[in-house]
Automatic annotation (TrEMBL):
It comes from Malus domestica (Apple). CDD domains: F-box_AtFBW1-like. Residues 9-49 form the F-box domain. Coiled coil: none annotated. SUPFAM superfamilies: F-box domain. PANTHER family: BNACNNG10540D PROTEIN, F-BOX PROTEIN CPR30-LIKE. The lineage of its organism: Eukaryota, Viridiplantae, Streptophyta, Embryophyta, Tracheophyta. NCBIfam families: F_box_assoc_1. This is S-locus F-box brothers-like protein. It comes from the Eukaryota. It holds the Pfam family FBA_1.
Length: 392
């Protein structure tokens, strides 16, 4: 039987070459010809480019996305704070194991005048979910595209009378629903019955009610309310304490309410769960946050040793939506003037936040600590993969 050899066309070769180029180049190449624009915009090409970018993530280089600030002080002593988005590209010598980095500032034209409070709250496939004041946006930093979401249906204006329902934003997550093949945003809202009185005896009373949540899908471009099931293992008064981490169809938050734990949301079934953390209280360790380590959720705890901090990093094993187990990955420190880990890079590098917003990298094998010469960080870092996944 003769073997039929597949003939590679000129377009196949073009697709293969283009799919390995950075997003910035591809955005320019879309203007060369309509046929190139059609190729680069096609869902199959977007998926191929994302797959190649994910494979490149396994290389020795690391791309870190962060937002940082720069304060301008004027002659009249007034000041203004500008928020910048940047990417740090990290690489390490294969011989001498020296850490090298370069910083690329990004220009993302958000449609808000006041950008002092820009918070990253979730990340998936090159897209980040962002809170800018009271507004929620999806953004692809690699292409500069953004999408402002409709106003929440659960977040209400402050009550004007003596009585009313007060609603407060508490958490945001973003990820991909593999069943419906749709990107989703989930928002968690705290609800309180409030009573306020002014007079001879002024007082303010808040009665905490069960939390509620809502889900936004890009295809529908609207929010819909979902219930937090209080009959399951989920605490109706959960308090997400950090930006979310997405992994394999779940959003995760670090939560702090009568103890520390991990709060999760199944984007397919739209069900919340509570995940217990390892017991480290007897060793004076306390958990403070989570981040993504390879294909696992990692959490870190710390304790003081005189005026320094010692950190443990734990990895969650095989979480199936109900049960989980934890394994200690490593111990780093003790360090002086280091607040907490931010993410785990390549070549055993732990990216950390130091005092006054300084970014640093610790090699977990050697224990060497190196500070980055960049302006202070506002929020947090994520191990980022550049993509051309569209927002609009």
């Amino acid at each position: 039987m003769s073997q039929v050899r597949k003939i590679e066309t000129l377009e196949d070769k073009l697709v293969e070459i283009l799919s390995r180029l950075p997003p910035k180049s591809l955005m320019r190449f879309k203007c060369i010809h309509r046929s190139w624009c059609a190729i680069i915009s096609s869902p199959s090409f977007v998926a191929k480019h994302l797959s190649n970018s994910m494979d490149n993530k396994l290389s020795s280089s690391t791309c870190i996305l962060l937002n940082r600030c720069q304060v301008h002080v004027f002659q009249d002593r007034s000041w203004k704070q500008d928020v910048f988005w940047s990417m740090i590209n990290l690489s390490i010598d294969s011989d001498e194991r020296n850490l090298h980095y370069d910083v690329e500032d990004l220009n993302i034209p958000f449609p808000m005048e006041d950008q002092d409070n820009v918070e990253l709250h979730g990340y998936c496939n090159g897209i980040v979910s962002v809170k800018v004041g009271k507004n929620v946006l999806l953004c692809n930093p690699a292409t500069g595209e953004f999408r402002q979401l409709p106003n929440s249906s659960l977040l209400l204006p402050l009550p004007k009378g003596r009585f009313g329902l007060e609603t407060i934003f508490k958490g945001l997550g973003f990820g991909y629903d593999c069943k419906t093949k749709a990107y989703k945003v989930v928002q968690i809202i705290e609800n309180c019955d409030c009573e306020y009185s002014e007079g001879e005896e002024s007082y303010y009373e808040r009665i905490l009610l069960p939390y509620t949540a809502e889900v936004y899908t890009m295809t529908a471009n609207s929010w819909r309310e979902i219930k937090i099931d209080t009959s399951s293992d989920t605490d109706p008064y959960c308090i997400p304490y950090s930006g979310s981490v997405y992994l394999k169809g779940f959003c995760y938050w670090f939560a702090n309410d009568n103890g520390e734990y991990v709060f999760s949301f199944d984007l397919c079934d739209e069900i919340f769960h509570r995940i217990e953390l390892p017991s480290r209280g007897q060793f004076d360790f306390k958990f403070y946050g989570i981040f993504l380590y390879n294909e696992s959720i990692a959490s870190y705890c710390s304790r003081y040793e005189e005026d320094c901090k010692l950190f443990e990093i734990w990895v969650m094993d095989d979480y199936d939506g109900v049960k989980s187990s934890w394994t200690k990955l490593l111990t780093v420190g003790p360090f002086k003037d280091i607040d907490y880990p931010l993410t785990f890079g390549k070549c055993d590098e732990v990216l950390m936040l130091g005092s006054y917003g300084r970014a640093a990298s610790c090699n977990s094998s050697t224990g060497n600590l190196k500070y980055f010469h960049i302006p202070p960080i506002i929020n947090w870092m994520i191990d980022y993969v550049k993509s051309i996944v569209p927002i609009k």
